[in-house]
Amino acid sequence: MKIQVLFGTESGNAEMAAEDLALSVRSDDQEVEVHDLSDFSISELQHDALYVFICSTYGEGDLPNTALPFFADLNIVRPDLAWVRYAIFGLGDTFYSETYSQGATKLADKLNELGAERVGEFGRYDASSWEPVGEKAVEWFSGVLEAAAQMQ
Ligand SMILES: Cc1cc2nc3c(=O)[nH]c(=O)nc-3n(C[C@H](O)[C@H](O)[C@H](O)COP(=O)(O)O)c2cc1C
């Protein structure tokens, strides 16, 4: 099963987390691709892949810039995603208490609405914690892989 890591970012933290996560699982036996959501079209979604969305929040609980075209396409095309399995890790900051990590929540809600199935826990990263975002993402993803193995 290929792992496709898709990140949405505004200032690069989600990309950093995506790259660290990919590095931690890539091996001769495990194919992993990393794409910015702005370079990834819904027509490229494939069977037999686990999609890992890493997405920050900007504005007032909005998606970051690079996730906007993909999100708009989900709304316009409304593909049937019943065959898609995905995991999601949201970056945010509890300083924004009303809208904490809402960008990723909006993306997950849309994927669910279109039939996709989430694997594992919804990951959250709080920038106010000052913890290294890559380490948090890698730690979270090991739980996702366990959950995915149990589903097979
Ligand atoms: C102008 C601005 C607005 C933000 N708005 C929110 C928000 O509404 N909710 C939230 O949880 N985090 C918010 N954040 C925090 C970012 O999501 C957080 O810093 C994240 O790590 C950024 O990741 P990125 O570099 O991948 O975009 C905001 C940050 C900035 C600079």
Structure description:
With 152 residues, the chain is of the alpha/beta class. It has one domain (2-151): Flavodoxin domain (Rossmann fold), CATH 3.40.50.360. The protein is built from four helices and six strands; from the N terminus they run βαββαβαββα. Strands 1, 2, 3, 4, 5 and 6 form a six-stranded parallel β-sheet that branches. Strand 3, helix 2 (68-77) and strand 4 (85-92) form a beta-alpha-beta unit. It is globular. It starts with a strand and ends with a helix. It binds flavin mononucleotide (FMN). Residues 9-14, 56-61, 64, 91-93, 96, 99-102, 127 line the site of flavin mononucleotide (FMN). Flavin mononucleotide binds next to helix 1 and strand 4.
**Backbone structural class:** alpha/beta
What percent of residues are in strands? 15-25%
Could you state the CATH homologous superfamily? Flavodoxin domain
- Estimate the mean pLDDT confidence: 97
What global shape is seen? Answer: globular
Number of contiguous helices: 4
Outline the low-pLDDT stretches: none
Main features:
alpha/beta, binds flavin mononucleotide, 6 strands, single chain, 22% strand, 36% helix, 152 residues, Rossmann fold, 6-stranded parallel beta sheet
Give a summary of the structure in a few sentences.
This protein has helices at about 15-25, 70-75, 100-115, 135-150, and strands spanning about 1-10, 30-35, 50-55, 85-90, 115-120, 125. With about 150 residues, it is of the alpha/beta class.
